[in-house]
Amino acid sequence: MIFKSFGLIIISETTPIGPPRCKLSTGQPRSRFEFNNMLKLVYHMKKILAVSGGVDSMVLLDIFKNDTDILVAHFNHGTRASADEDEAFVRKRCEELGVDIVVGHAKLGEKSSEEEARKARYDFLFSIREDIKKRLPNEPVFICTAHHLDDLVESVFINLSRGTGWRGLTPFTMPQVSRPFLNDDILLPESRADILTYAARNKITFRADPTNSSEQFLRNRIRAKLETLEPETHFQLNQKIKSLYFSQQLKRVEIEKVLTELSPKDGVFKRSWFLKLEDRLACEILKFALLKHEIKLTGPQVKDFLKAVREYAPEKKFNLPEDKLITLHKDWFKI
Questions:
Q1: Domain that holds residue 29
Q2: Can you tell me the distance from the alpha carbon of 207 to that of 209, in angstroms, rounded to the nearest whole number?
Q3: Which end of the chain is more exposed for a tag (fewer CB within 10 A), N or C?
Q4: pLDDT digits (tens, 9 = 90+) for 229-265
Q5: 281 and 190, same structural domain?
Q6: Cβ atoms of 176 and 54 closer than 8 Å
Q7: Model pTM greater than 0.85?
Q8: Can you tell me whether residue 318 is helix, strand or coil?
Q9: Could you read off the pLDDT of 188-232 as tens digits, one per residue?
Q10: In a domain, 63, yes or no
């Protein structure tokens, strides 16, 4: 049974949540002492826990609540009326646990995109990390998010639908950001089903995000499709994508090492160079250079950019996302 009161949800142990599609781990080894020591062994660094108030992040907070090296970070996007209630809920729980919390605010509005909200949230998280590093320059500091295996699978499908190519298999690749639920070094909950099971057994309260059921968002539509699969099929799909994710992460390091060596150190590219390169390699170099400046282009957009580099008249400008312009000079351009 699921009890709802004042926007909070408590899942009882009898809640029918379906069979786990991945390994079932409650995050509770033989003793709480042993579990805490395992966490310290794997996560022996300062940790900024990104906690929204949803079930995933509240389970993450519960798992690390006895760690003395955590700081909770909550970002109020200002995108819906209940955002202030989410903030108050997370503040109250941190007060009960005696955990420090930092809250950031924005007024993005209901019409803001998922990408805008994500950028604002990560800017906030990294600003906290930078502040800690200034005071503790020799301490490793990581941002920990509650992304799990189902989030990974959904993100891969979203990326592939947008033509992101091989990079679409490694959506959660970001320096100084850790995803504990995707870490195989310790048995934490891995899938959405695992997290719900942990929440039920440990009587975790959390906030429900009403946008998670809106078909306005591509992620929700993909999630709904995946949930129609038979449990065993869903499990096998998740495990296959997880395997691809980890193997592709290793390949990504090698690929980006080569691309770094190929790219000019001063960021100035010769247009004649791209006339000689094969299309796929030329697109990879352009996309890599743009990503270093946090400019994301789809596959077709990169091809359009390559065409412009090869064919535009001198001094003509090429439009990039967010009204950014690149001037293509006679012989060169700079990103």
A1: 2-243
A2: 6
A3: N
A4: 999 999 999 999 999 999 998 899 899 999 999 999 9
A5: no
A6: no
A7: no
A8: strand
A9: 899 999 999 999 999 999 998 877 777 888 899 999 999 999 999
A10: yes
